[in-house]
Amino acid sequence: MEGASDILRTASKDSLDRIELCQKLWTQCEGCDHLNYTKFLKSNMLYICEHCGYHLKMKSLDRIDLLVDRDTWDPFDEHMVSIDINEWDCTDKPYQDRIASSQRDTGLTEAIQTGMGKLNGITVAIGVMDFQFIGGSMGSVVGEKITRLIEYAANRSLPLIIVCASGGARMQEGILSLMQMAKISSASYDYQCNKKLFYLSILTTPTTGGVTASFGMLGDIIITEPGASIAFAGKRVIEQTLNITVPEGIQEAEYLFEKGSFDSIVPRNSLKATLGELLQLHGFFPTTSILD
User: Fold this and answer.
1) Residues contacting 121, CB < 8 A, separation 6+
2) What distance lies between CA 77 and its chain's CA centroid?
3) Which of 178, 192, 228, 254 is the least crowded, having the fewest Cβ atoms under 10 Å away?
4) Is the pLDDT of residue 5 over 70?
5) What is the rounded CA–CA span in Å between residue 71 and residue 25?
6) From CA 256, how far away is CA 183, in angstroms rounded?
């Protein structure tokens, strides 16, 4: 006869299975707590809440599907992975274990995907950060992949697009993560000032820390999504560090746009068309081959 503990264990497992199934079927809006049918969000709404219009976080793969023409995506540097060079000692989880679990959960090797593709027929170099991979944090590999992407675009006179979604520099890599800011900025300077090429920066929720302070704000044109949270330091960090209260909404795209921080706020369902128009306005036009 099955014991009480076995019955409880079976009931508990069934409950967890139901919860996991519900989480796959439904996605809760971060703005209004409304439950959205996940399949509908992905196929028809581009992860935009049907109730309040809030732009939910997107995986990098979904965003590449949104921006890059079908069958034109050519990824770069997929072999590059982070190592625990500092031998980070943490009571929560060792750094190498966090990397491994993020790779299993996301199917990615790092917190950014870089590559070349076409946007409305226009060949572009594009990088897309993924917040699900250790908060989209920027370590040595992320910095190196972005730098290589910029240099690739500079050598081939391609327009550059980087979609930012990051909690900032990766603390487990210490000073090495902060060095990426200078490295990327230097490559960007050569790309923009010496080669006179065109860099479009897209800031999504959230974009904070060293990513905001460096390449996120270096675009020739800077675009944000509606309601995006943009800051150097998050609200909680500021309040705990300085012992002050940060007013609500002060780190949202709409408030910062009024203060002149960005060039435009573009809804996700209009983003690809807007980018295509901007690229043509700056002298980039559709080509017949991805190798052109």
Assistant:
1) 69, 285, 286, 287
2) 17
3) 254
4) no
5) 28
6) 27
CA distance 280 to 260: 24
Between strands 264-265 and 221-224, the pairing is parallel
CA–CA dist 269, 277 (Å, integer): 14
What is each CA distance from 129 to 56, 58, 138, in whole angstroms?
15, 10, 9
What percent of the chain clears pLDDT 90, i.e. is strictly above it? 66
**228 vs 216: CA distance, rounded Å:** 13
Residues with Cβ within 8 Å of residue 212, at least 6 apart in sequence: 164, 168, 203, 230, 231, 232
In this prediction, residue 209 carries a pLDDT of 92
Distances (CA, A) of 214 to 17, 123, 188, 217: 43, 25, 10, 6
Question: Average pLDDT of 118-136?
Answer: 97
pLDDT in tens, 219-276: 999 999 999 999 988 888 888 888 999 888 899 999 999 999 999 999 999 999 999 9
